[in-house]
Amino acid sequence: MRWTDNHCHLGYGKDAAPIDEVLAAARAVGVERFVNVGTDLATTLRAVEVAEQHRGVWATAGLHPHDAKEGLGGLEDLLTHPKVVAVGECGLDFYYDNSPREEQCQVFATQIGWAHTHDLPLVIHSRDAWDDTFAILDSEGVPERTVFHCFTGGPSEAERGLERGAHLSFSGIVTFQSATDLQAAAALTPLDRLLIETDSPYLAPVPHRGKPNQPAFVALVGEAVAAVQNRPVEEVADATWATTENFYGLRS
Ligand SMILES: [Zn+2]
Asked: Could you tell me the residue ranges of all domains in the chain?
């Protein structure tokens, strides 16, 4: 089986292991492709550099809602880099409110516009902000390729995303025994609209919960999805590989 981790943050965290080692550990268990996500200008520049240096690694360019107050300067220029495959992660986080909501909404709208202008996928982070997230998407127009990363909603939010043509990306949370609503959402998501991720170094899946996460663990997410969909793991591995390749346009 081969797997893609469609959302990780390589090198994040002060005790991060060397990226070479992290990638080697992942490849050893069949995780061969990595979308390394930027969250502001500095991390995007670093993500592009890592993508240039390692096979099977791509980058995204975007401003996280936590950092909305930093402004978007310099980011749009990076969207034309050949290793940059998406805009984001961007969106709204009304749980932490690390940036004023008005600025979060503005920079989210601008980045949706970039996805349209540059014909790139949009990677959305949404926490405690479903109504505003959908409202801004509807007013700016939902990009043809849109993913809700680390999707944390239940069946009704899943339906709201799917009916807009979006993809849903499931993280290690789907392995948590208490996450029954999220598991119900994963059960109803068609495999051609479903991606898996680690969001490492955050949100390690069971049985690594509470420890630093790494792309090598993405198969545990795939296994949890297979369990709730009552399918063989191989089918989920094949489907998520192909869905992710098509979504981002990954080529070798
Ligand atoms: Zn992330």
From this structure: 3-248
Name the token pair of 77.
């220029």
Amino acid at 194: L
Residue pair 235/43 in contact (Cβ under 8 Å)? The answer is no
126-159 pLDDT tens trace: 999 999 999 999 999 999 999 999 999 999 999 9
- Compute the distance from residue 49 Cα to the ligand 1 centre, in Å: 18
As a whole number of angstroms, the distance between CA 110 and CA 105 comes to 9
List Cβ neighbours of 172 (8 Å cut-off, separation of 6 or more).
Answer: 198, 199, 203, 204, 205, 206, 209, 213, 217, 220, 221
Domain 3-248 class in CATH: alpha beta
Residue whose pair of structure tokens reads 């063989």 in the numeric block: 232
- Residue 112 · residue 85 · CB < 8 Å: no
Q: How far is the CA of 178 from the centre of ligand 1 (A)?
A: 22
